[in-house]
Each structure stands twice: as C-alpha cells, then as structure tokens.
Write a structure and sequence with these properties.
CATH architecture: 3-Layer(aba) Sandwich
Strand content: 15-25%
Structural class: alpha/beta
CATH class: Alpha Beta
Shape: globular
Helix content: 25-40%
Strand order of the largest sheet: 1-5-4-2-3
Length: about 90
C-alpha cells in the first residue's frame, strides 16, 4: 500500500478525499480535501472515481483510509493513503 504524510501531499498529485463524517470535516480538514463520508463512499465508490486518475485518502485515525486504499488497489485504482503524521 502506498502511503505518504499529509506534509508531502500537494494538490497537483491528485484528488484528496477525506473520509471523515461531515461534522468532523467541518471542524478540521485539509484545505484541498473533498469530503465523502466513509459509509457513503463504500456504497458508491464507483460513482466518484475514474480508473485513470490518482486519488489520495485521509481520515482522522487512518483506519478507514487504509481499508479504502487496500480495497481500491485490489480493483486496480491508483490510490495512496495519507497519514496525519510522518
């Protein structure tokens, strides 16, 4: 699984998707992140993603983003987990 620190992320790398709840996203998020709550994303991931584009996933504890990246790698997507600390 590819993984980078939030300090290494730059919006030119690809889309940053924050899997936090809407409430948590409103309290704290990266300025370039798009919010798609984890449960909603898991149900409809194919509606949000294109196979030929890179995506970066973040969440508060790294659990949901790790699961999503593992699953999407298996399906052939270009995905990377973004962790809060280096």
């Amino acid at each position: 699984m590819k993984r980078i620190s939030i300090n290494e992320y730059d919006k030119t790398l690809g889309t940053l998707i924050d899997l936090s709840s809407m409430q948590d996203f409103l309290i704290h998020h990266h300025k370039d992140a798009v919010n798609i709550p984890y449960q909603k994303f898991m149900l409809y991931y194919d509606r949000y993603l294109k196979k030929d584009a890179p995506y970066y996933f973040i969440c508060s504890k790294g659990i949901h983003s790790g699961r999503v990246v593992s699953m999407l790698e298996y399906f052939g997507y270009d995905v990377t987990q973004v962790v809060q600390q280096s």
